[in-house]
Hints:
With 302 residues, the protein is of the alpha+beta class.
Amino acid sequence: MSPGRVYRRCIKPIIHAVSGELQAENERLKRYNPRPVLWLGSSPQHNLKGIALNYLQLSGVSALLVLSSWAWSAAAQATENDTTDALHERLAKIGLRVQTLQPAPIDGWYQVVTEQGLLYVSDDGQHMITGHLYSLGGAEEPVVENLTEQANGRLRLQAIAERDDELIRYPAAEVKYEVTVFTDHTCGYCRTLHNNLDQFHQLGISVNYLAFPRGGADSRGAREIQSIWCADDPQQALNNAKAGQRPAAAECDISTNEHLQLGRQLGVNGTPAMILPDGRLLAGYRAAPLILAEIEAANESR
């Protein structure tokens, strides 16, 4: 097949989808072209035709593959952007504010992180699933993996890292592991955990806190926990509050109501709620040896 016919049958339909990318691509091609690019006209279609014909004459089929790959890649990216924009708009109409959106492990579906948590939506925007997605693996003997929990674990660790400077820390002398606890100073089991921090420290587990006022953003507890985080010595203020003392009023730029919102997004429904080093969420109080066993079991299973 002649270069001209290859252009008409194979290249031209692609050009119409990607002509807006021409100038940048032309500059890239010129770096690899041993002689000047053929310019056959003033329109993008004519210019790309010149590039295509010149490359076909120089490199034959390899040039066609390069151009076709680039063109289809650009067209696919445009389609992907249109799809994600449409899904953002559609989910917003039902009150879901999208934070991230990426292809899910299932073809034709997207994994969506919203302020209400993680969910899955079909690429046509017609169906939505909340809950856990499992993989059974490709081997003859199924290996069950909770893909949703793995994704949630990564999200939790990332979210905590972004709040690193807002944590109230109780470090072990010799740190082996760190856990993050969503806490409320009025919660009985939170006080039990706090009173047993020495046990965690003896096992090499540092405990870091984020706030989770159980009564909601407008409660007295929320105002008090805000004051704890804004105190000159937040660690001592939290010690005193968990011993039953009422915190002195204080203000700062930290928003413990944002901690509350973050906790809900990450799946926290009550206190204490502990996030382990692998991102798993454990609800309720558990003694330090049980926490250590959970951490070590997860490490051994990797």
